[in-house]
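Example record

The entry below shows one chain as it appears in the dataset: sequence first, then structure tokens.
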Amino acid sequence: MALVALLVAPVLGADESPQRPEFPDLTLTSPSGQIQTLSTFRGTIAVLNFWATWCGPCRMELPELEKVYNELGAKGFVVLAINVEGPRAPVGPFMQRMGLELPVYFADLAEYQALGIGSIPFTVLLDRDGRAVRVYAGYSPAAMADLRKLATELLGEGKD
């Protein structure tokens, strides 16, 4: 499945909700073994961040995402740090060394491979209905500023 191509092609603004593609309902596993699906987070503005402990750009991006999470989390915003290395990866010690408290998950390998993600970090901003608003391939400060802006706009949707 070339889902990534579908997601990357349109660069949608927060006000273009009718054209947002639905993101697959991934199966996520916490480091403690708890399993849940991505649909559990419907109703929130969610960021999926695919990363690895050995990834240099991921080490720059994760603290930025935690700042946005700390700033907007009480308003219905969540960041899901999805490690692509698998459940044996040393994510606990890594997160501790980095001083990060983001919720960490592992995606089912087959589901992750089906997404067609070719590089990390790879970040997807989802609206409350689980639809992809914007995709960020790689890390840049400009992308994080855009993510913060769009997330803030999405949190304000429907609150008139």
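Notes for this example: Residues 8-14 have pLDDT under 50 and may be disordered. The two ends are 38 Å apart (CA to CA).
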